[in-house]
Amino acid sequence: MSYNRENGRKLDELRPISAKVGVIPNADGSAMFQIGNTKAYAAVYGPRELYPRFLQNPSKGILRVNYNMMPFAGHGDRVRPGPNRRSKEISLVAAKALAPVVDLSQFPNAVVDVFIELPQTDAGTRCAGICAASMALADAGLPMRDLVASMSMGYMDGSIVADIDAHEDCDLGATDIPVAFLPNSNKLTLMQMDGKISQPELKKLLDVGLQMCKKINAVQVKALKAKYEVQK
Known about the structure:
By secondary structure, the chain is of the alpha+beta class. It is built from four helices and nine strands; from the N terminus they run ββββαβαββαββα. It has helices at residues 85-98, 125-139, 166-171, 199-231, and strands spanning 17-21, 29-35, 38-49, 62-69, 110-120, 149-156, 159-161, 175-182, 187-191. It has a five-stranded mixed β-sheet with strand order 1-2-3-5-4. A four-stranded antiparallel β-sheet has the order 7-6-8-9.
């Protein structure tokens, strides 16, 4: 048995993607990343001295991420405004996915704050947020080893599905597997799983996910280059 997408999209086809950096003038770095109907904005502030001082790391700076989905952004019921368990969990997940690429060794006792806002969503929210945040960190001029590209893979009816939407995730019950990669080194910085999949199929899924993330990375790089080409 194999799965056929109702909207005619191929199993390894991404939804339309758009991206832009420098979208929030007062931030040190900012970006917008949209895939399908999921749109994320990210703003970076810092490095700046961290208070209270007992939280400071004298050997390097600290990366903090705050993820927030706006009340009427979601697929389904209204999201209650303010911090909640899910937003705190995704904030930590995003920080861990981004940390390997940001070199904060030059900024002891400092903090870099990343704020991710989702005004509209159709699945893949944490992944879109990570993509936007990675671009915003680069836009802020922070030393980075790579960009982070992220997307939600799915597995259903024996098929590996790229970039699942909310209908596939919530209504059809796809196994949701958010992943994030460093496209230049092929390293995985995030993998979560909601559902079941065999080990061999998971390996295949990650191979497909890497290739999809490289396509996303090309959009990220193009958006960053576009800003500086305009400034010339």
